[in-house]
Amino acid sequence: MAAALGPEISRDPATRALLTQHIRSAVDCIATIFPWTSEETASQEAMYAVSTMVGALALSRAVDDDRLSKEILTISLDRLTHQAQATGSTPGDVAKPRPPKVARAKKAKGRPRPGAGAQAPR
């Protein structure tokens, strides 16, 4: 999604800030899934994995050739899997992953959300 909307997102500072938060959260989550050799390695490898996944998904959706689309996804998955195995890590190695660091918006007290309680027209 981020790759497809990149040009539009870049025009809105609030949206960019929100996307930055989500990307950091995704990287933090991936970094906690595998038993990396160091915290620095975890962050770098997780950034690589997230970038590869987003790019592969965007490219696979952009092409009009189903075979090429599947090849993009398959090769990306194979390379990421090979990379994880080369570090001695697989998702099954994880006993208790730490929850991702996600900043949550605070709920406003006393005010309903926009559209909350509204009924659909009949």
Record the SSE blueprint.
Elements: H1 2-9, H2 13-33, H3 39-62, H4 66-86
Helix pairs in contact: 2-3, 3-4
Please describe the structure with a list of short key phrases separated by commas or semicolons.
122 residues; mainly alpha; 61% helix; 0% strand
Structural class: mainly alpha
Gap between N and C termini:
33 Å
Q: Mean pLDDT, as a whole number? A: 76
Q: What is the makeup of the main sheet?
A: none
How many individual domains?
Answer: 1
Q: What would the principal axes of the Cα set say about the shape? A: flat
Q: What Rg do the Cα atoms give? A: 19 Å
Low-confidence stretches: 94-100
- Report the count of strand segments: 0
In N-to-C order, the SSE pattern is HHHH
Helix content: 55-70%
Report strand %: under 5%
Q: Helix segment count? A: 4
Question: Overview of this structure, please?
Answer:
With 122 residues, the protein is mostly helical. The chain has one domain. It is built from four helices and no strands. The protein has helices spanning 2-9, 13-33, 39-62, 66-86. The radius of gyration is 19 Å and the shape is flat. The model is unreliable at 94-100 (pLDDT under 50).
